[in-house]
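Table 4 source record.
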Amino acid sequence: FASSNPMWRASMDKLSFAPLSVVDYGGGVIITDWFSEENDEEEIKISVRFLSNEIRSDSIKIITHKRVCTSSKNCKTNVLSSDSKINSELRSVILKKASLLEKEKKKKKK
């Protein structure tokens, strides 16, 4: 069932670089675990919530948390704004990938 939803498939593909902690198609949510690519003091956690199956920018809500730790017991966590660079870029690549998947799906039906 989930394999036929281009928004879901695109999101799973684009978040494959991160460890996933929650993947719930029925609940319409994908949440990564905390991860860091370069900086050991900064980590992020991404949550993607599906509001609709349509391929539109308002069909998904992306929430990114950023955690900065100056020591093992001194961490500060903030929610990045919805128009942050990370959220905007992730939304864009998910929508592009979903559009491509939808086009491929339509070609196969012909």
